[in-house]
Amino acid sequence: MSTAIRTLLVDDQYLIREGIASLLELEDEIDVVGMAENGKDAIAQALKLKPNILLMDVRMPEMNGVEATAKIKQALPTCQIIMLTTFDDEEFVVQSLLAGACGYLMKDIPPKDLAQAIKLAHAGVFQLAPEVAGMLIGSLQNKSH
């Protein structure tokens, strides 16, 4: 058996962090190694814990997820970061991807799909929530006309 995927959860809402951690701990291949409540804390935790995967909220106090993603990717280029948010705003999506995120998923994702997304990101697969992908494609098509 391979070693578990070391995962760090970053969200400013305690209940969301704890809920996601509880769901992910049911997965044998995923090990939640830590949690952070804002971007600054995420950077410190990532440097200390060296996770394989980081689930990052976008909007948080002190430092947002986009800024934290860019800094973490600089320091830990092999860490895969998936944005997990309620905001499907095009600007957040584009900024997140430019900062180095390998995925952009919505918080209403079913738990099994989130676990699968972590496994896919760990294997190097890029992922976008269907509604986000559709919005980006539409935006790119509009810009090309």
Question: Could you give the order of the helices and strands?
Answer: EHEHEHEHEHEH
* Oligomeric state: single chain
Spatial sequence of strands, sheet with the most strands:
2-1-3-4-5-6
Q: Main β-sheet, in a few words?
A: 6 strands, parallel
| Uncertain stretches | none
Instruction: Work out the strand percent.
Output: 15-25%
**Number of helices in the DSSP assignment:** 6
Shape: globular
Helix content: 40-55%
Average predicted confidence as pLDDT: 92
How far apart the termini lie comes to: 51 Å
Structural class designation: alpha/beta
Radius of gyration computed on alpha carbons: 14 Å
Number of strands: 6
Give a description of the structure:
This protein is an alpha/beta fold and 145 residues long. The chain has helices spanning 14-24, 39-49, 65-75, 90-99, 111-122, 130-144; strands spanning 5-10, 30-36, 53-56, 80-85, 103-106, 127-128. Strands 2-1-3-4-5-6 form a six-stranded parallel β-sheet, with helices on both faces. Helix 4 links the parallel strand 4 (80-85) and strand 5 (103-106). Helix 2 (39-49) runs parallel beside helix 3 (65-75) and helix 3 (65-75) runs parallel beside helix 4.
